[in-house]
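My main concern about presentation is that the manuscript never shows what a single data entry looks like. For the editor and my fellow referees, an illustration may be useful. For illustration, here is how one protein appears when written out as sequence plus C-alpha cells:

***
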Amino acid sequence: MTPASTTHLVLIPSYNTGNKILETARDARRYWAPVWVVVDGSTDGTANALTEMAARDPGLRVLVLARNQGKGAAVLHGLRAAQAEGFTHALSMDADGQHPAASIPQFMAASQSHPDALILGVPAFDDSAPKLRVYGRRVSNGWANLETLWTGIGDSLCGFRVYPIAPLCAVMERVKWMRRFDFDPEAAVRLRWRGLRIVNLPAPVRYFRPEEGGISHFHYWRDNALLAWMHLRLMLGFLLRLPILLMRRLRSSRH
C-alpha cells in the first residue's frame, strides 16, 4: 500500500448495499488511501459494520448521514468535508461492487497528471450488463453530448470518475438539483460548460445478480423521468450558453 495521499481520496456514497459495500471498501483500500464512505441514511446495519472496519484501518473513514438524501447529496457531503481538510480531488465509485477498484491507481495518476481535468470512466460491459440499461444509457449520452457540442464526454452515467473538488462544489452550491440519480450526468455536463477538459479512460463494469449479493436501487420509470427532467433543464441552459460553446468549439478545432 502506498502512503496516504494528501490531495486525492476515494469517495464512496452508499445506501443499503449490504455486504457489497464492505467488499467495495476493502477492495478500494487495497489500492488507495484514504478511502471515505458516506453512508446515506442506510438502514441495513452497514454503518456500524463500516465504523468497526474504520476503527481498525486508519486509511478508512466513515461519514454517516441520519437520513437518505440521494447519491449527489451524499457525494456533496463528502466533498465539503474533504475540501475542509485540504483535499483537491475525489474519485467517486459506486458501493455495489460494479466498478473496478484495480483501476483506481490509473485514474488517480491521470488526475495527478491533469489536475484541471475531469477524469471520466467509460464502461466496458460484460455479459452481466442488463441490455435495457446498456441501450438506455445511449439516449442519455446522446443528450449529454449534444448539450456540450460533442466536446469529450465519453459516458455521462458512469459513476467511476475523478472530480476536481473545487469546481464541482461551486457548481453544486449554485444548482439545487444534482442530488439524486441525476448527479453523474449533470455534473459531467456542467463541469464541461465551465471549461474543464475531459480525459476518458476505460472502466470494466460488472453487474452482480441478486444471488451474488447484487443490489440495485434503480427504478426504471422514476429514474428515467428524473433524467428526462434533467435533460430538459440542461437543454435550456445549453441554448443560453450556445454562443459561448460554439466559440469554444471553434477555438479548440483550430489547435
